[in-house]
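User: Before I run my own analysis I want an independent prediction to cross-check against. Here's the chain; please return only the C-alpha cells and, at the end, one sentence I can use as a sanity check.
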Amino acid sequence: MRTLVVCVDRAGDVARSTEVALPVVGRDAVESLVVDLGYRDPEDSTVNCLLEALRVGADVEDGGDEAVVAVVSGAADTAVGADRALAAQLDELVAAHDPDTAVVVIDTAGDEGVVPLVESRVPVDAVDRVVVRQARDIESTYYLLKQFLADEELRESVLVPLGVVLLVFPVLLTVTGSLALAIASITAVIGAFLLYKGLSVDERLGAVSSQAREALYSGRVSIVTYVIAAGLTLVGAFAGALGVSGLGDAGAFVAAMAFVYHSVPWLALAALAGATGRLTDEFIREEGVRASYLNLPFGAVSVGLVVRGFSAYFVEQAGVIAPVHTPALPLVAASVLSPEERLTAYVLLGVLVSLVGIRVSSRLTADGRGRDETP
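Assistant: C-alpha cells:
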C-alpha cells in the first residue's frame, strides 16, 4: 500500500523563502528543503513540520508500506489563490504517484482547512498537527482567542459588557468621588447582567414578543383580554394601596391582609379576563377545548373567593372593616355574621364554584366540544 505523507504549508512560507519547484517530492528533496529553510529562518515552525513529515514517512516504511513524502505550499497572495495552488499540487501528486491513503502534517490551526482538499482526492488516515514545545501555550492561547473573537454571541456577551464597565467606571468615580460607591455600582450592574443572561431573560422576552406579534397578526381575542387583564391588575394594585394608606400603625401583617382584601377582586377579574380570552380562542378554532382551559375561569373565581374570605377574616378581627349584616327575610330575621361565619361562607362558595367548573368541563368533554389532555 502506498501512503502519501504530505506536509501542508497553506501560508506559502516555503514558496516565499525558497526557490524550489512545488510540490517537493521525495525524502532527499525534503531533507534538502529542511536544511535550506532552517538556514534561512531557524525559528520558523515550518522546519519542525517538515521534520515531522520525514519522521512519519520513516514510520510508515517501518510498517511495511511504501511512503511518498511531499510538501505542498500555497504560492499565492490571496486565500482563495493559495487553496487553488494547493489543490493543483495535490492533483499533480495523486496523478504521479497514485497513493492509496494519505497522512496530512500541519503546524497551524489555519492549515486544517486544507484537510478537506486532500480528502476529496485520496482517503486521509491521520492528521498530524505539530506544535513547537516552547510555543505550545502561546499557540493554544492564540487559537482560543481567535475562536473567541470569531464567535459573535461571545463577543456580545463578554466584550460589550466589559467595554461598558471600562467606560462607566471612571465616570462614576468622577461624579461620586467615592471608589467604594463606584465599585459597588459596577458590581451591581454586572450582577444584574449575569442574572439576565443566566435566567435567559432575553430569550423569554423574545418569545413573549414573538407570541404577541403572532397573536396580533392572527386576530386572537386573547391579546385584547390580556391587555384588559393587565389593566385590571394595575387597578387591583392601586385599590390595595388605597386600602392600606389609611391604616396608620396597624402592623405589617394587617396591612398586607388589607392590601390583599382590597386588591383580590380586581386580580380575580384580571385572571378571569385572560382565561376567558384564551377559552374564546379555543372555541373559535373549533378543534375542541382543552379541559384545563375550561377549568381555568372557574379556578380563578374560586381562588379569588377563598383568598378574599381569609383576608376578610383577618382584617375584620383587626377592626379594619365592619362585619356583614344580613337583611331580614320572610322566615329569617336580620343578623350579623361573625368573622368565622363570613370565612366559612366564602370558602364554601369557592368550593361550589370549583365543583361547577369541574362539572362543566366534564360535560363539555363528554359531549365532544372539549378534549382531554391525557394521551
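Sanity check: Residues 252-285 form the longest helix (34 residues).
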